[in-house]
Specification:
With 197 residues, the chain is of the alpha+beta class. The protein is elongated.
Length: 197
């Protein structure tokens, strides 16, 4: 009888340990895939790793997220990463809709805006165009502002296709940003994403 009680206690103990491992793993996976951590800042609809944190000093959750979503990420002195899955009104980007990304030159040696699908991959499209950057975007007549058409349907210029995907995420990379931009990264300095239809 005592042996059966001991076996029951061991079985219950092992069951609780297994349950804790499964729950802990599930929470960890959720936290990593949610893309949220204490190191992020929200600037309008854009999120970034905090300007005062670096990959060598951030929390373990941020390191895990970078390992999953941004392997080989550079340090804060070299690049600022920003991402969004919503328009400037906070609504999720709908790949069946058309958007215009209105922006202006960013004070960095090099910058780019790239579209990704729900799995974090580049979006396969008929023109093999996955991003725009300071060198290939067509600027407006003032030579400082631009409009990028984020759409599943073909556009005449600055078309960033988002065909046949369930979800879209945009990533801005600011390589060697100026100290002024780094210290004044605001809604006014970042592109605005407006739904057209």
């Amino acid at each position: 009888m005592a042996l059966n009680q001991k076996i029951k206690k061991i079985a219950i103990g092992l069951g609780l340990v297994l349950l804790a491992v499964v729950l802990g793993s599930g929470i960890g996976v959720y936290n990593i895939t949610s893309g949220k951590s204490d190191s992020q800042r929200t600037i309008g609809n854009w999120q970034t790793v905090d300007k005062d944190k670096d990959l060598s000093t951030v929390d373990l959750l941020t390191i895990a997220q970078v390992a999953v979503f941004g392997p080989y990420a550079l340090t804060k002195k070299e690049v600022i990463y920003l991402s969004t899955s919503t328009d400037s009104d906070g609504n999720p980007l709908d790949p069946k809709s058309d958007y215009v990304i209105n922006g202006k030159k960013l004070d960095a040696k090099y910058w780019s805006i790239t579209a990704y699908d729900q799995n974090g991959f580049l979006i396969k499209n008929p023109i093999n165009k996955y991003s725009y950057n300071l060198e290939d975007v067509k600027y407006e007549s003032d030579s400082t502002t631009y409009k990028i058409n984020l759409s599943g349907s073909e556009k005449k210029e600055n078309w960033l296709p988002i065909n046949n995907v369930e979800k879209t995420t945009l990533i801005i990379r600011l390589y060697l940003p100026s100290e002024k931009l780094r210290e004044n990264l605001t809604v006014e300095t970042l592109p605005i994403i407006q739904k057209v239809k």
